[in-house]
Amino acid sequence: MDDATHATLPAHLDVDALRKHLDGRWRHVREDVREKAGSTVLPDPDAGSIEDYRAKITEALRELGATGTPAIGFSKEHGGGGDVGGSAVAFEMLGYSDLSLMVKAGVQWGLFGGAVQALGTQRHHEQYLPRIMSGELLGCFAMTESGRGSDVQSLGTTLTYDAETQQIVVHTPTHDARKDYIGGAARDATHAVVFGQLITGAPGEQAQGRGVHAVLVRLRDDDGNPLPGITISDCGPKAGLNGVDNGRIVFDHVAVPREALLDRYGQVAEDGAYSTLIASETRRFFTMLGALVRGRISVAGSAGSAAKKALAIAIRHGDKRTQFTRPGSNDEMIVLDYLAHQRRLLPSLAKTYALHFAQGELVATMHDVQSAAEVDDARQRELESRAAGIKAVATWHATDTIQTCREACGGAGYMAENQLPQLKADSDVFTTFEGDNTVLLQLVAKGLLTEYRDHFGDLDTLGTVRFVADQFVGTVIERTAARGLLSRLARVGAGKNGAVLDRAWQVNLFEDRERHVVDAAARRLRRAAGASPNRAFDLFNAVQPHLLEAARVHVERVVLEAFIAGIDTCEDDASRRLLERLCDLYVLSEIEQHRGWFLEHGRLTPTQSKAVTNAVDELCAQLRPFAVRLVDAFGIPPEWLTAPIARR
Ligand SMILES: Cc1cc2nc3c(=O)[nH]c(=O)nc-3n(C[C@H](O)[C@H](O)[C@H](O)COP(=O)(O)OP(=O)(O)OC[C@H]3O[C@@H](n4cnc5c(N)ncnc54)[C@H](O)[C@@H]3O)c2cc1C
Questions:
Q1: Is the pLDDT of residue 3 over 70?
Q2: Which CATH number do you get for residue 271?
Q3: Whose CA is closest to 179, among 131, 123, 235?
Q4: Are 396 and 531 in the same domain?
Q5: Alpha-carbon gap, residue 351 to 311, rounded angstroms
Q6: Is 452 a member of any domain?
Q7: Structure confidence at residue 488 (pLDDT)
Q8: What is the pLDDT of residues 573-626, one digit of tens each?
Q9: Pocket around ligand 1: residues whose beta carbon is below 6 Å from it?
Q10: Bridge partners, residue 254, by sequence
Q11: For residue 373, is pLDDT > 70?
Q12: C-alpha of residue 145 to centroid of ligand 1, in Å
């Protein structure tokens, strides 16, 4: 190892100092959740029926509402805290509790309440937000349909305005248009934000489709019975998250007042005339979805918490568990002292740290963009792309990490009391909801290829192909918080090229890979220039896996830069030195995992490739003594870390 460029590891780590650094800008929110954690008793999902479990989660949800924490993300004028970033951090912290509770809260305050706030106007805010914030009025977010999940723009539900009655008629025209998987619908929600195609016209004008809009619909009466014209059924048992009551909803010509339209982006006058400030239907649609980006960011944060909790369990267990005696002695080996065990857990821990800083940056960007007086379209589009990418990478990482941790705990990891089976079952679907990961990465790739142009939202698949085919497009290395820092690094690293622990070399390798993969994808797409729509689509389809890889390597670069920026602001010397090593482990594990690409493309020599593997081994051994303290620094509320194998 090149110790000249790397300070030695500290003899001692002050866990509190590291935790404070990790807590970051919204430390007060994290501390508040920790303080209140004791009052949220986690229900045992296996103790009774699914109905019992749901009832307990709903009870916990109402208690959570009473604490006032969920209100922090809502506007101050309606009694909220006006703290967008704080609310995302609170959801992230809730990811340490029962994930059914986190999802139920996410539906109530993130999706349902968030849609009323972001898509509605003054009258909706005044009428509904105070009761939504307190949890008195429970709602759901009805977007997905049985036939259309990822392709939300093609929803089949119709919202037809009738000027005579001044009502909007909500209707499910086909089986495919049935609302499906809707959290909160089966049991608790009295209201729903329902997405569908708005159809309206001014007098003398043919009524026409205006694209996807949302209306607020009352689903149930005071006794909990569905209102006339509304049929609700239960999705039944799921692989996990059984404390959430997912359901299906069918509307049979259900009339709601004109005012029920959440009309921030498109309005219907009494006579049926439609007006909007965003003329393009597709652009309007993406603007509406963009306003809901907070949900996606919260899921990414909760996935991070789930991964941290699994690692805390597996690393604490691995630090005590012994198997086999060391030859020549009577001492049993602690399993975490086996290099193979370290290699399973510590690179995951390093990536979890990396994603922690990336998530922190994402939340801060969202807070600043959404709290700004003026809308900055370019920053908003970058935010949406970043949120899509981090959500995909973080949820896949959580799924992989939890499985690894389960195996790392042997049979004990399979026992319900040790929390890993529930974590695994509950977090699995994070890769699918709030946007399927594969589809999200396509969005990221589209942003890279079109340089987040103004008409980003206007480009459908073919539009993207045409755009890329017709223009010269280079890689976008978008702004990140670490830009200034990186140019400084490049100077410091000069002359040290080739040393695998040289941070400038590592950053250049990630940047270079991103540029190469995106440019190559753009070159392949340019072959579609002048082709027929059919041929252009076939070309796009053939490039699709390449585009997904482009998005993935882009996200890895953004995550690395966030990690570097996170280290730079760390004031505690011992913590900073450990973070440096974790960052090395994150980068080098990623390079090792994808070394085929680096070797094939002449970015790594065989000698460097071997040096990477040796460095990963060595970093694992060096970080091993700090492993338990590194998971302690997450500050997981002990009331929510109940696994007996995680006890000290
Ligand atoms: C537990 C749970 C809770 C949910 N809660 C809600 C809720 O409260 N409200 C709500 O509105 N929705 C909810 N959903 C729905 C969820 O958002 C959708 O399941 C999700 O958007 C994916 O849609 P889909 O299931 O139709 O999958 P599909 O879109 O049919 O995807 C199936 C597969 O096809 C692939 N695929 C799709 N399009 C492409 C493409 N263009 N290129 C390549 N591959 C593609 C995907 O990657 C995926 O692997 C929930 C779902 C679940 C499971």
A1: no
A2: 2.40.110.10
A3: 235
A4: yes
A5: 11
A6: yes
A7: 67
A8: 999 999 999 999 999 999 999 999 999 999 999 999 999 999 999 999 999 999
A9: 107, 141-144, 149-150, 181-183, 238, 241, 246, 429, 432-433, 436, 438-439
A10: 170
A11: yes
A12: 9
Is there a single domain that holds both residue 499 and residue 529? yes
Element (H, E) at 149: none
Calculate the CA dihedral of residues 600, 605, 608, 610 and round it to 10 degrees.
70
- 409 part of a folded domain: yes
| Probe residue for ligand 1, chosen from 432, 446, 538 as the CB with the greatest number of ligand atoms within 8 Å | 432
Whether 105 and 146 map to the same domain: the answer is no
CA 644 to chain centre: 29
Does residue 186 have a pLDDT over 80? yes
Which is the closest atom of ligand 1 to the Cα of 142? 11
CATH of the domain at 448: 1.20.140.10
Out of 181, 244, 430, 440, mutate this one to test ligand 1's pocket (max ligand atoms within 8 Å of CB): namely: 181
Domain interval for residue 85: 16-138
How many residues does this entry show for the chain? 648
Q: Are residues 62 and 198 in the same domain?
A: no
Q: Tell how far the Cα of 399 is from the centroid of ligand 1, in angstroms.
A: 17
The string of pLDDT tens digits covering residues 297-336 is 999 999 999 999 999 999 999 999 999 999 889 899 999 9
Q: What is the pLDDT of residues 544-574, one digit of tens each?
A: 999 999 999 999 999 999 999 999 999 999 9
- Closest ligand 1 atom, residue 461 Cα: 41
Among residues 116, 138, 160, the one where a domain terminates is 138
Kindly report the protein residue whose alpha carbon is nearest to atom 27 of ligand 1.
149
**Do 470 and 354 fall into the same domain?**
yes
Is it the case that residue 497 has pLDDT exceeding 50?
no
Q: How confident is the model at residue 200, as a pLDDT?
A: 98
Q: How many Å apart are CA 42 and CA 40, to the nearest integer?
A: 6
C-alpha of residue 433 to centroid of ligand 1, in Å: 6
Residues 56, 82 within the same domain: yes
User: So what's the pLDDT on residue 490?
Assistant: 60
Q: Calculate the alpha carbon distances from 117 to 62, 73, 190, 309, 499 in Å.
A: 20, 10, 18, 32, 51
Distance 324 CA to ligand 1 centre (A): 46
| Domain match, 309 and 457 both | yes
pTM, whole model, 2 decimals?
A: 0.95
CA of residue 149 to ligand 1 center, whole Å: 4
The crossing angle, in degrees rounded to 10, of helices 15-23 and 573-593 is: 70
**Ligand 1, atom 26: closest residue by C-alpha:** 149
Number of domains making up the chain: 3
Q: pLDDT grade, residue 381 (50/70/90)? A: confident
